[in-house]
């Protein structure tokens, strides 16, 4: 087995014990990137000499007896919308194709502190607002399972690179499924943490403008990884108190622990989009595996999830409305068409131009939903939901026609309800259907990530190992 095929935890252990060097790991991953990235176009701005220099420093630290972090010497990618000092930060925009960041954001700083070797920037759609990863600046990222289907978005390059073995871990961010959906499309693990667990602070020198309230309150940074153990390690490495983040926690909570036997409530359908048979099969399989692992499993209806998804289209889209002229001017044609169809879907729910009163009432209703769902979940219940009501979408399905574009927003209800609520979610693969990965999402109360990752591990322990064909 080549080094690029090893998980992050195994790589960190091998580097720490000097079984192999960080340079050898970097060379193996760079070789893999050279072999498959020209096909997949998942990573941009890869600088091999800088990567090898960082790996040599990691080896020197081990040789000198310095303490090592949980990702010491492990190759990790970062996303083109996340500031990394001196590296490409284009947001997928042709006008910013050569722009670079002045400082690291908090999540990148945390990865460096954990010892990660940052190997490249992962591709995303323009402004990171589509569930597809293509843009005029860097081109289209492919899913290593099928060129005809999306790798997900907006962290599609991150998920594609992990699934193809370019890096064992990738950083992503999520305000509407942008970590969890690409993980589901590519057959890997994605974690959307509780808001505040991982700092979302970004240098004012790179953020340019102050983001609207939904961006501040809903967007999170988190890991995508090849397995649950690596996702858990990366999440712990990224988490940390940061008083610069207005929603950051002042101290890390202790490990989540249930007060009794953990119950799993399966939520199959909330009335917004009928689940595809392959999605239903994956839910049934995951439920059976969890029951086999000792979980108490039941199927329930949970209408507040549908209400939260509808609120996403109200609150986020109204916050974005003043930004639309600039987004349409700087973005590509795919972005413009997607925005048009997405706003048509929102208009069907809330009217063409929702009033300020409707917007204010939406925020008030959000607080009620959070309280009710937190009471439902408590400390001993998690939810099992689809990742999406459909398997991975065909490329550019969101811009094919208005009905299909609106239908995709509805199908993504498991992705859009969580940002509104601020709860954590984990996407974990279950298997393959018709040549495409299919997975499930686990949802818990705030700061219950460990409970979710334990359940995800139970699923992974029973699932087949997924190996994509990579060359479509």
TrEMBL record:
Enzyme class: hydrolase
Keywords: Hydrolase
Keyword Hydrolase: yes
EC number of the protein: 3.5.1.4
Pfam families the record matches: Amidase (PF01425)
Name by which UniProt lists this protein: Amidase
NCBIfam families per the UniProt record, alphabetical: PRK07487.1
């Amino acid at each position: 087995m080549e080094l690029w095929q090893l998980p992050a935890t195994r790589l960190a252990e091998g580097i720490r014990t000097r079984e192999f060097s960080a340079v050898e790991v970097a060379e193996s991953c760079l070789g893999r990137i050279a072999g498959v990235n020209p096909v997949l176009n998942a990573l941009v701005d890869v600088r091999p000499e800088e990567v090898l220099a960082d790996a040599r420093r990691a080896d020197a630290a081990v040789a000198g007896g310095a303490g090592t972090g949980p990702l010491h010497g492990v190759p990790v990618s970062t996303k083109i919308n996340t500031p990394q000092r001196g590296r490409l930060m284009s947001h997928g925009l042709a006008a910013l194709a050569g722009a670079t960041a002045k400082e690291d954001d908090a999540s990148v700083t945390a990865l460096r502190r954990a010892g990660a070797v940052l190997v490249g920037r992962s591709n995303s759609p323009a402004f990171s607002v589509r569930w597809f990863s293509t843009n005029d600046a860097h081109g289209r990222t492919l899913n290593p399972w099928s060129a005809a289907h999306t790798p997900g978005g907006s962290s599609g390059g991150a998920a594609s690179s992990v699934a193809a073995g370019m890096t064992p871990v990738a950083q992503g961010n999520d305000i509407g499924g942008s970590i969890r959906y690409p993980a589901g499309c590519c057959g890997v693990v994605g974690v959307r943490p509780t808001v505040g667990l991982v700092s979302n602070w970004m240098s004012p020198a790179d953020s340019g403008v102050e983001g609207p309230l939904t961006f501040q309150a809903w967007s999170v940074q988190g890991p995508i990884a090849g397995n649950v153990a690596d996702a858990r390690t990366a999440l712990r490495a990224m988490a940390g108190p940061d008083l610069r983040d207005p929603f950051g926690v002042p101290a890390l909570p202790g490990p989540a622990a249930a007060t009794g036997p953990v119950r799993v409530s399966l939520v199959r359908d909330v009335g917004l989009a009928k689940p595809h048979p392959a999605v239903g099969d994956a839910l049934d399989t995951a439920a059976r595996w969890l029951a086999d692992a000792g979980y108490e499993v039941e199927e329930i209806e949970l209408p507040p999830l549908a209400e939260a998804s509808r609120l996403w289209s109200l609150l986020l889209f109204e916050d974005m409305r003043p930004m639309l002229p600039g987004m349409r001017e700087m973005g590509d044609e795919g972005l413009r068409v997607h925005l048009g169809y997405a706003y048509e879907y929102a208009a069907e729910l809330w009217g063409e131009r929702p009033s300020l009163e409707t917007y204010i009432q939406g925020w008030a209703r959000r607080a009620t939903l959070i309280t009710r769902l937190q009471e439902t979940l408590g400390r001993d219940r998690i939810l099992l939901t689809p990742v999406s009501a459909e398997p991975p979408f065909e490329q550019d399905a969101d811009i094919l026609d208005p009905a299909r574009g609106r239908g995709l927003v509805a199908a993504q209800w498991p992705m859009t309800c969580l940002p509104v609520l601020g709860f954590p979610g984990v996407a974990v693969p279950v298997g393959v259907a018709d040549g495409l990965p299919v997975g499930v999402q686990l949802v818990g109360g705030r700061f219950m990530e460990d409970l979710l990752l334990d359940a995800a591990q139970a699923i992974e322990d029973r699932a087949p190992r997924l190996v994509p064909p990579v060359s479509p």
